[in-house]
Amino acid sequence: MSELLIRNTTPADVPHLVALQRSVYPTIAAWTEERVLHQLGVFPQGQAVACYGDRIVGCASSLVIRWDEWSTDHSWSEITANGSFDNHDPSGRTLYGAEVFVDPRLRGQRVGHRLYEARRALCRRMNLKRIIACGRLPGYHRHAGAMSLETYAKKIVWGDLTDPVLSFQLKEGFSYCGVIENYIPEDAESLGHASLIVWLNPRYDPNRPTIAFGPGEKM
Predict the structure, then answer these.
(1) Residue ranges for the chain with pLDDT beneath 70
(2) Which of 11, 47, 72, 202 is deepest in the core (most CB within 10 A)?
């Protein structure tokens, strides 16, 4: 197998990316190719893919927002402008992680780690204060009858339970901030809910402006 490469998404990647998303989330409607192309047009530096040669095995999508304009109670559709990223604000200080997914056949091979690493590098390069994201809780449906959503998430933080998403995010250096109900209502495994997480950029300098990318610049 060739070396894993993380790079910016290109228009040619879009059909393969959408097909991969369908295989990762068979019960959640995949993005349309038009939506992904629009995201690329809005903030190309924030869209990345993981590749082995010509094969796309993962994706990470993000936008910049003014976090102060949002409460902790929001949905994925609201904060991403229904996936269009039209509310991307280059003057914001927060990189919002809209999506990360990896080919299920390659889980455990650190593809997700490399995508998160690239996202942190982008945050540092742009002199953003933090990365905020909401992660699915796909194991919750198995415990919902026995405990509340918040208790489930706290047990993951405490190490009493593991969850494919939140457990991974904690290992990646993110901090748990709470739960958000009805984040993705159609996510049956998570019963629609998610955990709110944050990573603080240790190199953030409030005296420097956010870096605005020029035409053609990459992450």
Answers:
(1) 1, 212-219
(2) 47
Q: Is the dihedral of CA 14, 24, 42, 10 positive or negative?
A: negative
Please count the helices (runs of H) and the strands (runs of E) in the chain: 6, 7
Burial 54-68 (b: 16+ CB within 10 A, else e): eebbbbbbbbbbebe
> CB under 8 Å to 60, separation ≥6 — which residues?
47, 48, 49, 50, 97, 99, 100, 115, 116, 118, 119
State the DSSP string of 117-147: HHHHHHHHHTT-SEEEEEEE-TTGGGTTTTS
Question: What is the spatial distance between Cα 167 and Cα 138, in angstroms, rounded to a whole number?
Answer: 11
Give residue-wise pLDDT tens across range 90-123.
Answer: 999 999 999 999 998 888 789 999 999 999 999 9
CA atoms of 129 and 156, how far apart (whole Å): 26
The secondary structure element, H or E, covering residue 14 is helix 14-24
Lookup: tokens for 11: 């228009």
